[in-house]
Amino acid sequence: LHLVALNLPFSGDMRADFQCFQQAQLAGLTSTYRAFLSSHLQDLATVVRKTDRYHLPIVNLKGEILFNNWESVFSGNGGQFNIHVPIYSFDGRNVMTDPSWPQKVIWHGSTANGIRLVSNYCEAWHTADMGAMGQASPLKTGKLLDQKVYSCSNQFIVLCIENSFVS
User: Domain Collagenase NC10/endostatin spans what residues (predicted)?
Assistant: First the structure.
């Protein structure tokens, strides 16, 4: 399953699932992509289909392994990954080095186990209000689910996960 970033950073007011869908289509990817975010409807840990959570590796756009499987992202270590394996955007840029993302932080709105944090997910990703808060993770920590709180007015990286494997 591919983990890919949106082509631009977003504040807490985003239509992330739609953006993931649209940018994947424009990039010629045929499977379904969902935002790597907890929402008011779903915890991040359950975004990937149950049948695909254990046996498929999580890879970047070029097929390099980030995680052994979806479940390993939520094993309690904060989604620890190898920071030497780049995360690419749908248009092929490395979000860790490209200046289009000046802040190397990803939104997630979740606990380290992928459960939604209702108090810290920018009102279900519908506000960029400076006073509202969102849970996010600085990539320099080497974790996708580090537990830091930021104002929803920040423009951070938004990741998308291929949520079902199509052979």
Answer: 1-166
Which helix H or strand E contains 17, and what residues bound it? helix 16-26
Candidates 96, 84, 127; CA nearest to 109 is: 127
What pLDDT digit, counting tens, does each position of 72-83 carry?
999 989 999 999
pLDDT tens for each residue of 11-45: 999 999 999 999 999 999 989 999 999 998 899 99
The structure's pTM equals 0.96
* Cα–Cα distance, 85 to 40 (Å, whole number): 31
CATH topology of domain 1-166: Mannose-Binding Protein A; Chain A (3.10.100)
Contact criterion met (CB below 8 Å) for 133 and 110: no
166: Cα within 13 Å, side-chain hemisphere: 7
